[in-house]
């Protein structure tokens, strides 16, 4: 049997009846596909409303607990937003990829009709992905807090000069980075900005935090994987720095501001089919998208 910390095995299949279908409003193809999916479900006796992931009426219904499953049509960004919406209410997310990469999706060559049929037969499992909690502190006061599925990034602002960031783990000094920034990432985020910054890829079920500097200058240039349950504190010693959570609009940081990052209280659940080795098969497919692979050396 697979480890329960990795997935929820559907030993007593739950046949979903209350489903909502959402798409990215700026992707016309995604919204068209969402309509097709809703029609497909209607033909099978399920009245599934559909619309934009940002539609306030649909979001209020999600918050009210009206749905058992949310289907998100779009790219990885759409999956991030869907995870943010659904995790506090313990609603699983099924992703249909209409984006460019799709690291967060399970690619099925038979297409979504086959996946929906399996879903309606209860032939699926739930993959749990850790979220981060990030808190912004200034002079001992908590100014704001957020949940992140991918990463929390402290980086330089508009001026093209490196910033100084002191990192400590569980109250113990780690090092001071001189860099363009510092990423605190989940295993999910290890295939995003962290990967672009030279970090390792972590299996999605891990609950470790990955720390990786961005373009370090004469300072520690290696990624650090923290033990499960650790807290990292990032204190900026520059007046040209910002905070961004899951790629959202940056928030200005003042000199000596501190950003604390630890495992969050919410967990995103993605609906998966078949064996858990899909992640490694997808990974190989994504890495082979580089146009230079296979060309003569």
What does this structure look like?
This protein is α+β, with helices and mostly antiparallel strands. It folds into two domains: 7-124 and 273-287, Rossmann fold (3-Layer(aba) Sandwich); 131-265, Probable inorganic polyphosphate/atp-NAD kinase, domain 2 (Tumour Suppressor Smad4). Helices cover 20% and strands 35% of the residues. The protein has helices spanning 28-42, 56-63, 76-86, 111-120, 193-196, 278-287, and strands spanning 7-8, 19-23, 50-52, 69-74, 93-97, 125-138, 141-148, 151-156, 163-169, 172-179, 181-185, 210-214, 224-225, 232-236, 241-245, 251-253, 258-272. Strands 1, 6, 7, 9, 10, 14 and 17 form a seven-stranded antiparallel β-sheet that branches. It has a six-stranded antiparallel β-sheet with strand order 13-12-11-8-15-16, with no helix packed on it. Strands 3-2-4-5 form a four-stranded parallel β-sheet, sandwiched between helices. It is elongated, with a radius of gyration of 20 Å. The termini are far apart. 39% of the residues are buried.
List keywords for this structure.
single chain; 297 residues; alpha+beta; Rossmann fold; Tumour Suppressor Smad4; 2 domains; seven-stranded antiparallel beta sheet; six-stranded antiparallel beta sheet; disordered N terminus
Enter the CATH topology name of the largest domain: Tumour Suppressor Smad4
Helicity range of the residues?
A: 10-25%
> What is the level 1 CATH name of the largest domain?
Mainly Beta
Radius of gyration, CA atoms, in whole angstroms: 20 Å
For the record, the count of structural domains works out to 2
Taking pLDDT < 50 over at least 5 consecutive residues as the criterion, the unreliable ranges are 1-12, 291-297
N- to C-terminal distance: 45 Å
Globally, the shape reads elongated
Helix-strand pattern, N to C? EEHEHEHEHEEEEEEHEEEEEEH
CATH architecture annotation name of the largest domain: Sandwich
| Number of E-type strands | 17
Structural class: alpha+beta
Residue fraction in strands: 35-45%
Number of helical elements: 6
- Average the pLDDT over all residues and give the rounded result: 89
Q: Main β-sheet, in a few words?
A: 7 strands, antiparallel
Find the CATH superfamily of the largest domain: Probable inorganic polyphosphate/atp-NAD kinase, domain 2
């Amino acid at each position: 049997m697979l480890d329960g910390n990795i997935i929820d095995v559907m030993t007593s299949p739950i046949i979903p009846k209350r489903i909502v279908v959402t798409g990215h409003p700026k992707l016309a193809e995604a919204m068209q596909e969402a309509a097709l999916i809703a029609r497909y479900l209607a033909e099978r006796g399920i009245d599934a409303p559909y619309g934009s992931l940002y539609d306030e009426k649909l979001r209020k219904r999600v918050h009210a607990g009206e749905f058992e499953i949310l289907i998100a049509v779009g790219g990885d960004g759409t999956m991030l937003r869907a995870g943010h919406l659904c995790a506090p209410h313990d609603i699983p997310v099924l992703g249909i990829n209409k984006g460019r990469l799709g690291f967060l999706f399970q690619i099925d060559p038979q297409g979504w009709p086959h996946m929906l049929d399996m879903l309606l037969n209860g032939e699926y499992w739930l993959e749990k992905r850790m979220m981060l909690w990030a808190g912004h502190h200034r002079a001992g006061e908590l100014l704001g807090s957020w949940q992140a599925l991918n990463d929390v990034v402290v980086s330089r602002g508009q001026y093209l000069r490196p910033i100084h960031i002191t990192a400590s783990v569980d109250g113990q000094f780690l090092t001071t980075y001189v860099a363009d920034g510092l990423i605190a990432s989940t295993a999910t985020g290890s295939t995003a900005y962290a990967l672009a910054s030279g970090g390792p890829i972590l299996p999605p079920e891990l609950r470790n935090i990955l720390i990786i500097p961005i373009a370090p200058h004469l300072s520690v240039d290696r990624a650090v994987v923290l033990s499960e349950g650790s807290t990292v504190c990032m204190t900026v010693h520059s007046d040209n720095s910002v905070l961004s959570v899951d790629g959202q609009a940056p928030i200005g940081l003042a000199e000596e501001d501190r950003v604390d990052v630890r495992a969050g209280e919410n967990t995103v659940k993605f609906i998966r089919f078949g064996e858990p080795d899909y992640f490694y098969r997808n990974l190989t497919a994504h890495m082979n998208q580089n146009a230079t692979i296979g060309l003569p050396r």
